[in-house]
Amino acid sequence: MNAVMEACVRCGDLDSAMKVFDEMSKRDGCGVDRVSYGILLKGYTNTDFPLGALTIRDEILRSGLKPDKTTYNTLIYACIKSGKTNAAIQFLAEMKVSSKWLEGQKKLSRPTAMISFQML
C-alpha cells in the first residue's frame, strides 16, 4: 500500500494518499510504518502547504516512532521552503540531541544542508 501512496504523491494527489494512509491505519488495515509517514511528509513538502509536514511529525511521535534522518531532513526542507528558518534551526538542534539514536546515520543530507545554509 505504500507503493500506492507513493504513486499518489508523485502525481500530486496528496488527498488520495491521505485516504490510503487512513485505510491502512484502521484496525483492519495493513498498518502504517515509518515509510508510510515519510511518504506523507514528502507529499506535504511538494504542495503549497509544506508546513503540513509538521502535523505528520506529531503523528509520528504519537505513534511511538522516533524520527529518523529522512524525517528530519524532510522537516527541515519543509521549514526552509516555508521561510520558517527558526523552526528549521530547532529541528537541526533536535537532530543533534537525537544523534545518539541516529548514530551511524548521515546527519543531514547534502541537498538539505545546502538549501538550509543558503537560506540563512
TrEMBL record:
PANTHER family, A to Z: OS09G0431600 PROTEIN
The protein, known as: Pentatricopeptide repeat-containing protein
Alphabetized PROSITE patterns for the sequence: PPR
Entries under Gene3D superfamilies matching the protein: Tetratricopeptide repeat domain
Residue ranges of coiled coil: none
PPR repeat residue numbers: 1-27, 33-67, 68-98
NCBIfam families: PPR
The organism's place on the tree of life at top rank: Eukaryota
Pfam family, one: PPR_2
Alphabetically ordered keywords of this record: Repeat
